[in-house]
Amino acid sequence: MNVKIEMGPGSAIAKVALAPNETFTAEGGSMVAMSGNMSIETTTHKKGKGSIASGLKRMFSGEGFFMNHYTASANGGEVILSSSLPGDMMVKELQNEKLVVQGGSYVASSTGVDIDFEWQGMKSVFSGESIFWLGVRGTGSVVLNSFGAIYPIEVDGEYVVDTGHIVAFTENLSFTISKAGKSILSSFLGGEGLVCKFKGTGTVWCQSHNPQGFGQAVGPKLKPRS
What we know:
- A hairpin with a 6-residue loop joins β1 (2-6) and β2.
- The strands form two sheets. Strands 3, 5, 6, 8, 9, 10, 11, 12, 13, 14 and 15 form an eleven-stranded antiparallel sheet that branches. Strands 1-2-7-4 form a four-stranded antiparallel sheet, with no helix packed on it.
- By secondary structure, the protein is mainly beta.
- The chain is globular, with a radius of gyration of 18 Å.
- The chain has helices at residues 52-60, 122-126, 184-189, 211-218, and strands at residues 2-6, 13-18, 23-27, 31-34, 39-43, 67-71, 77-81, 89-101, 106-110, 113-119, 132-145, 150-162, 166-170, 174-179, 194-207.
- It has one domain (2-216): Mitochondrial biogenesis AIM24 (Double-stranded beta-helix), CATH 3.60.160.
- The protein contains four helices and 15 strands.
- Helix content is 12%, strand content 50%.
């Protein structure tokens, strides 16, 4: 699986080149186009496996109910992927490690990567984000997307990130949900609300725009359907 990101950071697509008979997994609905003779299997989890519970957990995490597993023909093949919101994409190569991924940011992964659905406790509920986050673990390629540009922040000690701007972070970072200001009132009046305080040594990948904030700004201006 060889992934090339093009047309970023505003309208990125991921071109996934597959070796003969190679398989990879992608979020349902992310495919733009693909070469001929590509076989597709749809499940709610791994290839050949799945359940209604797995699909429901994915929906709670902000992902789709189904996952598509693409297998190239004997001549190889290509699949082009995109995301629902305009923004960038990135490829992270995992070496027997784990990323915690915010719901809606997962796009695709190679067969050596397993995807779990993780409960982050009541702190995720109070953050206003997903109840379940994704635990992406293993060895192989992972494709993630963002709303706007995506960029890494190297944490060595403590770092504060707005909950709506998180794409993913390395598992060795711990976090707590906290108010941005000195009080709950000042935090919300300042427009920041709750934030994630990360501690440890690792990387947080952030997106330049907040999908929830964008929806709140644009939503009232949209005309209702007639």
